[in-house]
Write a structure and sequence with these properties.
- There is one protein chain.
- With 521 residues, the chain is of the alpha+beta class.
- Helix content is 17%, strand content 38%.
- The chain has 8 helices and 31 strands.
- An 8-stranded antiparallel beta sheet has the order 27-26-29-30-31-24-25-28. Strands 3, 4, 5, 7, 8 and 9 form a 6-stranded antiparallel beta sheet that branches.
- The longest helix has 17 residues.
């Protein structure tokens, strides 16, 4: 049995040393050497190909182990789509140890979704060794969902968002983003779209959106292969749905005092009847009613009185102040429409006259309006003046629209129904030791008295004031005991009876040196 070449060399060296020492003869040395053939078996490296790892679409890590068998050894990987291989990595040193070491190489530029073969190859001075063939399959290309945002279906303040999702054979989830800007801010609940390979029609219903508002929306879908965003769409909501309990659409108006001639005695009831008739026109067309707003009412009544007093008929008074100016002065900054009429004796006649005019009718049926105020006055060359103002601010809690049951009845009831009246504080503050309060009352109560109470630092100041043109303007110097207070409460009580609730305002200083200002009502 032939001996490996390194073993032969070692034996030869030992025999030569024995001969030198006289332990054996030269002849026996020659015989021993002759027993060792010069082509004895070589010892190439030992190699083993391991499974590929980190397999992606175009890259993979090839692995294996090399035992150099004591000689300087290099290794490389061969790989390709067949066992003929077609590519090879650069050669790298495996060292010259006598134990196995793990080796690996990253290969790139592979074709996705393709079967590859690979093997480890190592060589040293004694030969070359080939590891076993292994195979692996590169990952398929990512296939995120395909989405399309469809048109929205709007019904008042409810919208149905539509679109389609193709899951591309991956488990997929979708939802809709929506909001008043392209930052969205709201989203529907996530819903599974399955894992099919064709487009699936999807939708989501959203209720309770703001009326007459433009929204943005988009469809999103995601799977393990990624997330896809649909195109942005816009839609505009309609008017809010009318509250429950309103008269049926198409019914005849039954507003109390609708045909009662305007007079000082019945003015509050007739004014409310005119607003009731406006809302009948709206509801009969499926449009949500507008609600009574005290600020718009004060501005409208003030203008009607001014027209009679200064003998003019116009949206702009002799001082150049328009309805925008008047509404702003009353604390309502978003009034966007006004109707005026002169010479009409009843609410029904005034509203019908407006409905016969396209511009006035547009205000009465305006989809964007949410609140209104009305005023009327008797006197002057025209006999009567009527003013309606419309705004887009949300109604206050408890506001009425005139269609409630207590405001319905025959044209001239014997007992006038109660007209809601409200006392409210528009502004309040303490500046330089003086209390300043601006308030208004929805009922015309000129000459009536109000009791004002200011509580601060355990002290109470009380005094009386008088209503003028529906407004209360207070400027009162405080006692030295209350001037340095950091908080306080102002309370207004109407002395005229008629069930008007008191109004309160809480004042608080923002800092140690700041004046007291109203923080909450």
């Amino acid at each position: 049995m032939p001996l490996p070449s390194r073993t032969s060399a070692v034996m030869h060296e030992r025999l030569a040393r024995c001969a030198t020492l006289g332990l054996i003869t030269l002849a026996s040395l020659t015989f021993a050497v002759m027993l060792m053939p010069s082509d004895a078996s070589a010892a190439p490296p030992l190699v083993s190909t391991a499974p590929a790892t980190a397999i992606a679409q175009t890259i993979a890590v090839l692995n294996g182990s090399v035992n150099p068998a004591g000689l300087a050894t290099t290794y490389r990987f061969e790989y390709g789509t067949t066992t003929a291989y077609s590519s090879t990595t650069a050669s790298s040193s495996a060292g010259s140890a006598t134990v196995a070491r793990a080796v690996s190489v990253i290969v790139s530029g592979l074709t996705p979704a393709t079967v590859y073969h690979a093997r480890l190859v190592a060589s040293n001075g004694d030969g070359i060794s080939y590891g076993a063939d292994i195979s692996f399959t590169t990952a398929a290309p990512a296939r995120p969902p395909v989405v399309a945002t469809g048109p929205a279906a709007v019904a008042g303040t409810t919208v149905t968002l539509n679109g389609s999702v193709n899951p591309n054979a991956r488990p997929t989830t979708y939802y809709f983003d929506y909001g008043t800007t392209t930052s969205y801010g709201s989203a529907t609940a996530p819903v599974s779209a399955g894992s099919g390979t064709t487009a699936l029609a999807v939708s989501a219903v959203i209720r309770g959106l703001a009326a007459m508002t433009t929204y943005h929306a988009r469809l999103l879908a995601y799977s393990g292969d990624g997330r896809t965003y649909g195109a942005d769409i816009t839609f505009t909501t309609g008017a809010a749905a009318p509250p429950a309990g309103l008269p049926p659409i198409g019914s005849e108006p039954t507003c109390a005092y609708r045909s009662t001639p305007l007079s000082a005695r019945y003015r509050p009831q007739v004014v409310l009847a005119s607003m009731c008739l406006v809302n009948f026109e709206r509801v009969s067309r499926g449009i949500a009613p507008v609600y009574v707003d005290a600020r718009l009412g004060a501005a409208a009544q003030g203008h009607a009185d001014d027209e009679v007093r200064r003998n003019f008929f116009s949206h702009t008074n002799p001082d150049g102040c328009s309805f925008l100016c008047r509404a702003d002065a009353a604390g309502y900054s978003l009034a966007l429409g006004e109707n005026i009429s002169a010479g009409r004796s009843t609410a029904a006649a005034a509203v019908q006259g407006w409905m016969d005019s396209s511009g006035h009718k547009a205000n009465i049926l305006g989809l964007g309006f949410r609140t209104m105020g009305a005023g009327s006055a008797v006197g002057g060359p025209y006999g009567t003046q009527w003013v309606h103002m419309f705004g887009i601010l949300a109604p206050e809690a408890g506001a009425v629209h005139g269609l409630e049951a207590q405001f319905q009845g025959r044209a001239d009831p014997t007992t006038p129904p109660a007209v809601p009246a409200k006392l409210r504080v528009s502004g309040a503050q303490v500046t330089r030791g003086a209390l300043h309060v601006l308030a208004e009352i929805t009922r015309r109560a000129d000459g009536r008295r109000l009791t004002v109470t200011f509580e601060a630092r355990g002290k109470t100041t009380r005094f009386a004031t008088t209503v003028r043109r529906g407004r209360i303007d207070i400027d009162r110097r405080l006692s030295s005991a209350q001037r340095g207070a950091r908080s306080g409460i102002v309370t207004l009580r109407y002395a005229g009876g008629e069930g008007v609730r008191r109004a309160d305002a809480r004042l608080r200083a923002a800092s140690a040196k700041a004046d007291l200002r109203r923080r909450t009502l």
